[in-house]
Write a structure and sequence with these properties.
Blueprint (H helix, E strand, L loop, with lengths): L48 H5 L13 E6 L14 H7 L7 E3 L7 E3 L2 E7 L4 E6 L13 H12 L9 H7 E8 L2 E6 L6 H5 L9 H7 L12 E7 L3 E6 L13 E6 L3 H9 L14 H10 L3 E5 L4 E7 L9 H10 L2 H9 L3 E3 L12 H4 L10 H13 L6 E8 L3 H14 L4 E8 L1 H9 L5 E7 L9 H4 L10 H12 L3 H18 L3 E6 L2 E5 L2 E2 L17 E2 L2
């Protein structure tokens, strides 16, 4: 246990599927706004016994060995994957942990089995029975069992003080967890929830060892998982290292001998580390700029770039309990006034796509339809005229003055605020920036002590349920609606794919009409990697699919 402790600075400065009534559910429908991806079947990485026998040097087969070098952007004070859901912590430790299910690292919308070898549902989708893998061991050699799953779920349901975000999502769906035997656990939901598997597959829904939780309460200073890489050391401010878990339960994985993550907070320095090959892949969380992506494409022939679907939504959010924004006509006017095509160019230099409040997919409006919608269509003349009419109807013919809350030092938030102010000025809504330091900004947002807010929000998985924390009951913006509640319930309770897609589309219609916030765009940032890094695939979300289990080095 001692080897897995977080090393103090003295030693060195160095986180859906369709709920079918019987066995393992198929994952949810997926696809871009314009196209739908066929529903994939449940799967896991194929056994790689053949790869294990492949001599090093074979051109097209995975090779074993080597250390993957990464440049990480943050230096977290703790390594708890259960309750520190920041990308700083998750980016370092996620390769050491597993969930019952996870998103596939290659087909990134597909849910695959991990610590759960299979499962079935009963009681009209309210009861899940998970059959666990046998022979799995924690990194300290102790056996993994159903008791660990039950203990982890209990931890989710009893978060540390102030750590409520996770509780209002996955944990709030669960009524109880029961150990059937060492290899079987039964989870009862409070009611049918189609979002359950999506939440369960996220990177922060990891299973933790009961013997560590019982002894230490949290994993704040201990990295102890079942994942492909074992913790080696964390020298704060310098480096995080993990070594290959030779007893990992997926046959033939991982290919790499280890991971080295350099802690580099400055973006230009991180990109320089990539150019000099100190980092083989740019940071999956603090991604490179469009300018740097262009440099890679034009100047570095031995490297490649790929866009990732990180589910990061740029939005302008009014507080529904205050001032003019209580009137839906004012919120609709604001939505109409926004030139979203311009937002994609101004805010992310073209690296984005049109957004409604829902992640794109089969439940969401196709791109060709979205382009015709008021607030999305071009040119903007008709939208601006309708926005002015709505404001006049609401009693604001001359517009009004207001403020937009901005977190100091966050260039993204400032850019969204400035863009929104510029757009809304055209219809008479005059915004001034209210810039507050991070701590004050957090209190203002938590207390709903603001009129409007500029922000980016990260949805957790590519399903409507992945955004519920932003527009569902108890959201940050004071938006409550009986129509919304009915649409969410229909989405969560749908029993087949067709009805679920139909319910998702209805939910989207409600959100477009009632405007819980004004979505601008989905960011589609870029990751660069050297071409000798093989089997790197675009992932979805900030934290999913970054376990590096399938990656190998061709050199």
């Amino acid at each position: 246990m001692q080897d897995n402790k977080l090393l103090v600075p003295v030693i060195g400065l160095i986180v859906l599927g369709l709920l079918l009534p019987t066995c393992a559910p198929a994952p949810s429908p997926a696809g871009s706004p314009a196209t739908q991806t066929p529903k994939p079947a449940l799967a896991q990485p194929a056994a790689t016994a053949a790869a294990a026998a492949t001599p090093k040097g074979a051109a097209d087969e995975p090779r074993y060995g080597g250390t993957l070098m990464l440049a990480h952007h943050a230096d977290p004070s703790e390594l708890d994957p259960l309750w520190n859901v920041s990308i700083g912590t998750q980016g370092l430790v996620t390769s050491s942990y597993n969930g019952l299910v996870e998103y596939d690292p290659i087909q990134n919308d597909k849910i695959v089995n991990r610590l759960a070898e299979s499962w079935e549902t009963s009681d009209e989708g309210r009861l899940y029975t998970f059959h666990l893998r046998k022979g799995v061991r924690w990194h300290d050699g102790k056996p993994f069992s159903a008791a660990d799953v039950k203990r982890t779920i209990e931890a989710w349901q009893n978060p540390p003080r102030g750590k409520q975000w996770f509780q209002v999502s996955l944990a709030n769906m669960i009524a109880s967890a029961e150990v059937v035997d060492d290899n079987t656990v039964r989870v009862a939901l409070k009611q049918r929830q189609n979002s359950f598997l999506g939440w369960l597959a996220t990177a922060f829904a990891v299973i933790a060892p009961s013997h560590v939780l019982d002894q230490e309460g949290r994993l704040k200073n201990t990295v102890m998982g079942t994942g492909a890489f074992k913790f080696k050391r964390y020298d704060q401010g310098v480096v995080y290292e993990a070594l290959k878990n030779k007893d990992f339960f997926l046959p033939g994985r991982p290919y790499l001998d280890g991971l080295t993550m350099w802690i580099i907070k400055d973006a230009s320095t991180r990109f320089a580390a990539f150019r000099t090959q100190k980092a083989h892949v740019t940071n999956p969380f603090a991604v490179i700029s469009p300018t740097d992506a262009g440099i890679v494409e034009k100047q570095i022939p031995d490297a490649s770039v790929m866009r990732i679907r990180n589910l990061n939504l740029y939005a302008f959010a009014p507080q529904h309990t205050r001032g003019p924004w209580r009137d839906v006509r004012v919120r609709r006017a604001a939505s109409l006034a926004m030139d979203r095509q311009a937002a994609i160019q101004v805010l992310v230099q073209g690296f984005g796509s049109l957004a409604t409040a829902l992640p794109s997919g089969a439940w969401s409006m196709p791109l060709e339809e979205l382009n015709k919608l008021p607030g999305y269509r071009q040119p903007k003349d008709a939208d601006l005229a309708e926005a002015r009419r709505l404001l006049a109807e609401a009693g604001y013919a001359s517009g009004f003055d207001d403020k937009v809350l901005v977190r100091a030092g966050d260039k993204k938030y400032e850019s969204v605020a400035l863009f929104a102010a510029d757009q809304l000025r055209r219809v008479g809504i005059r915004l001034q920036l209210d810039v507050q330091e991070a701590a004050t900004w957090s209190r203002s947002r938590a207390n709903k002590d603001y009129n409007t807010l500029a922000l980016t929000v990260a949805c957790q998985f590519p399903e409507p349920g992945g955004a519920l924390i932003y527009f569902g009951p108890g959201n940050d913006f004071g938006y409550e609606s009986a129509n919304r509640d009915e649409a969410i319930r229909a989405y969560e309770m749908a029993v087949d794919q067709a009805s679920r897609i139909q319910a998702g589309r209805k939910l989207e219609e409600v959100l477009l009409d009632e405007v819980p916030y004004v979505p601008l765009l989905w960011e589609e940032p870029t990751v660069a990697y050297w071409k000798y890094v093989k089997n790197v695939h675009p992932w979805v979300g900030h934290q999913n699919n970054n376990k590096w289990t399938q990656v190998w080095l061709a050199r």
